[in-house]
Amino acid sequence: MITKLDSMLLPRKKFIYHYKNVRWARGRHETYLCFVVKRRVGPDTLTFDFGHLRNRSGCHVELLFLRYLGALCPGLWGYGAAGEKRLSYSVTWFCSWSPCVNCSIQLCQFLNNTPNLRLRIFVSRLYFCDLEDSLEREGLRMLTKAGVRISVMSYKDYFYCWQKFVDCKKSNFKAWEELHQNSVRLTRKLNRILQAWDLEDLRDALKLLGF
DNA sequence: ATTTTCAAT
Ligand SMILES: [Zn+2]
């Protein structure tokens, strides 16, 4: 089990402030990304590194992560001149916001060129996804088509992040009011964006049809 | 609250 120095971990208050899945997350002006990098060797995965990043000077945190990725994943681009023998990695990230359309496009391009990298995304809140025809919604669909699984964080994900990325001083994660309701609401919204049938939607549809 | 959203000073 890899562990980090306390200084490398997120302070508790900071984690709660930025990851709280409230409907109106005003005035934060920052986005955090907690990541786990695993090496894939056949059917097995080995945790290779983990940590967190924050957006810097006009650069969204997702693109900052892509810049770091070469250093995080030795051999991702292969060893020899022809770039053969690429090593396989899986990355899971937990971001306080879902990606904007620009980041989604760049991520899709990156993943297209890097089939030996698998990406799994959890988000706390949906970024600019209110309008039916928002580009951000389209970006999330593009990512899904590129093979990225995107989910809204639920209690178990906050619980995991708390013990993995936060300087929690052995304290247990304590859910805020509305964590569950907000997570369910956002999950339904994401499901609708990704055009998946949601159980509640199905119930509504059946009721409408008189069943 | 008809609230905001990876700042701009
Ligand atoms: Zn972005």
From TrEMBL:
Family matches, as PROSITE patterns: CYT_DCMP_DEAMINASES_1, CYT_DCMP_DEAMINASES_2
Molecular function via GO: cytidine deaminase activity; RNA binding; zinc ion binding
Gene Ontology BP terms: cytidine to uridine editing
InterPro entries according to UniProt: AID, APOBEC/CMP_deaminase_Zn-bd, APOBEC_Cyt_Deaminase, CMP_dCMP_dom, Cytidine_deaminase-like
Any Pfam family hit: APOBEC_N
Keywords noted in UniProt: Hydrolase, Metal-binding, Zinc
Lineage: superkingdom: Eukaryota
Keyword Isomerase: no
Cofactor: Zn(2+)
GO cellular component, one term: cytoplasm
Domain CMP/dCMP-type deaminase: 27-143
Family note: Belongs to the cytidine and deoxycytidylate deaminase family.
Protein name: Activation-induced cytidine deaminase
Gene of this entry: aicda
